[in-house]
């Protein structure tokens, strides 16, 4: 069954329009390039290494995280619905000599054909861009093997997140294009925890992702009031 109803076509078009700049570290995706080493380290630490793991990255965009996980020795499949972004990701991986299996598919459709296939599922900065986050989380749970580890990151629905992510990052610092985020789609941790429970997942950890504009760096740490990551496990 095709799950086109859980695709926001305006969001897909938005990312396709700037797809050619995914790998420009000073362009629209600069925050992801700054964030990637931090989230990669966090994922690797939680897993005690990525080498030999089968990983699926949901909403991979231009492949910044997917490619870095493959460099760490993981076997990576990466999904996105933005065709132009995927073409950029494939070309960059080819030029870099990194093997990633990029697929244009929704998480729901891919889960229907590849249930219980992956040791690790990552879904980073993606839930706030779909109409039904719970549907994606359930698909992620379906893709995971029993005992697998899942990572989700998103933005909290707080006024601090609105001020920093939309007013600060989009309008003042211009780190990301205007309209990248919609406050109405931000997700409170309590709501995300309910989604995880409904999908049969067990919460393992949660941490904040904190940006320092003075030195343009991210770090993990206590406080989930803006960007945050949760780690879950698929129970046996």
Automatic annotation (TrEMBL):
Keyword DNA-binding appears in the UniProt entry: no
Signal peptide: none
Binding-site residues for S-adenosyl-L-methionine, renumbered to this chain: 39, 59, 80, 124
InterPro entries per record: SAM-dependent_MTases_sf (IPR029063), UbiG_MeTrfase (IPR010233)
A GO biological process held by the record: methylation
Its EC number(s): 2.1.1.222, 2.1.1.64
A Pfam family annotated for this UniProt entry: Methyltransf_23
Annotated catalysed reactions: a 3-demethylubiquinol + S-adenosyl-L-methionine = a ubiquinol + S-adenosyl-L-homocysteine + H(+); a 3-(all-trans-polyprenyl)benzene-1,2-diol + S-adenosyl-L-methionine = a 2-methoxy-6-(all-trans-polyprenyl)phenol + S-adenosyl-L-homocysteine + H(+)
Molecular functions per Gene Ontology: 2-polyprenyl-6-hydroxyphenol methylase activity; 3-demethylubiquinol 3-O-methyltransferase activity
Broad EC category: transferase
Keyword line: Methyltransferase, S-adenosyl-L-methionine, Transferase, Ubiquinone biosynthesis
UniProt function note: O-methyltransferase that catalyzes the 2 O-methylation steps in the ubiquinone biosynthetic pathway.
This protein's name: Ubiquinone biosynthesis O-methyltransferase
Organism: Rheinheimera muenzenbergensis
Name of the gene this protein is made from: ubiG
């Amino acid at each position: 069954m095709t799950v086109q109803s859980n695709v926001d076509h305006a969001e897909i078009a938005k990312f396709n329009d700037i797809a050619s700049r995914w790998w420009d570290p000073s362009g629209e995706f600069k925050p992801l390039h700054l964030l990637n080493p931090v989230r990669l380290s966090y994922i690797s630490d939680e897993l005690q290494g990525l080498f030999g793991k089968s990983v699926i990255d949901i909403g991979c965009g231009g492949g910044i995280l997917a490619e870095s996980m493959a460099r760490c020795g993981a076997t990576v499949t990466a999904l996105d619905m933005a065709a132009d972004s995927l073409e950029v990701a494939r070309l960059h991986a080819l030029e870099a000599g990194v093997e990633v299996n990029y697929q244009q598919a929704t998480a729901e459709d891919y889960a229907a054909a590849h249930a219980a296939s992956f040791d690790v599922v990552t879904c980073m900065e993606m839930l706030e861009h779909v109409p039904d986050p719970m549907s994606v989380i359930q698909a992620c749970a379906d893709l995971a093997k029993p005992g697998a580890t899942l990572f989700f990151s998103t933005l909290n629905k707080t006024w601090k997140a609105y001020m920093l992510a939309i007013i600060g990052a989009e309008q003042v610092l211009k780190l990301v294009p205007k309209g990248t985020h919609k406050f109405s789609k931000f997700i409170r941790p309590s709501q995300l925890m309910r989604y995880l429970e409904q999908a049969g997942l067990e919460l393992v950890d949660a941490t904040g992702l904190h940006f320092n504009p003075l030195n343009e760096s991210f770090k993990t740490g206590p406080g989930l009031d803006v960007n945050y990551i949760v780690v879950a496990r698929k129970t046996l």
